[in-house]
């Protein structure tokens, strides 16, 4: 069982993982409805494609560029937290098993 402090670090990291995924989805959506709208027309409803964030770089869309900058900063923070705290996938998986517990607010 991790210390209360470590548990908060792990819970925060898990939150950042979810945020990272959501930010990527929203960034792709901005790109596909803006700068890459013509490419978006090629896809039919139900089509699947695995996008890479690199496909959206080098655009003149200031909003998309700002989202990409934030995405990069978020990755840097996540990598820092994972490295400095030695966060393991096993610890994150254990938190998944205890997901029903509410985090205390102070």
Descriptive overview:
The protein is mainly α. It is built from four helices and no strands. It has helices spanning 4-33, 37-40, 62-85, 89-97. It is elongated and about 50 Å long.
Number of structural domains: 1
Number of helical regions: 4
| Total beta-strand segments | 0
Helix fraction, binned, reads 55-70%
| Class per helix and strand makeup | mainly alpha
Low-confidence stretches: none
Q: Over the alpha carbons, how many angstroms does the gyration radius reach?
A: 17 Å
For the biggest sheet, the summary is: none
Give the termini separation: 21 Å
Q: Residue-averaged pLDDT, rounded?
A: 89
| Outline | elongated
Order of helices and strands: HHHH
Sheet-strand content, in percent, reads: under 5%
List strands and helices in order, with pairings.
Elements: H1 4-33, H2 37-40, H3 62-85, H4 89-97
Helix pairs in contact: 1-3
Give a short synopsis of this structure:
The chain is mostly helical and 106 residues long. The protein is built from 4 helices and no strands.
């Amino acid at each position: 069982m991790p210390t209360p402090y470590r548990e908060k670090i792990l819970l925060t990291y898990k939150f950042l993982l979810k945020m990272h995924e959501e930010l990527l989805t929203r960034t792709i959506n901005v790109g596909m409805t803006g700068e890459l709208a013509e490419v978006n027309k090629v896809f039919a409803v139900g089509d699947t494609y695995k996008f890479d964030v690199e496909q959206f770089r080098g655009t003149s869309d200031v909003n998309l560029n700002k989202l990409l900058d934030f995405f990069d900063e978020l990755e840097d923070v996540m990598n820092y937290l994972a490295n400095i705290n030695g966060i393991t996938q096993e610890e994150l998986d254990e938190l998944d098993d205890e997901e029903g517990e509410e985090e205390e607010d102070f």
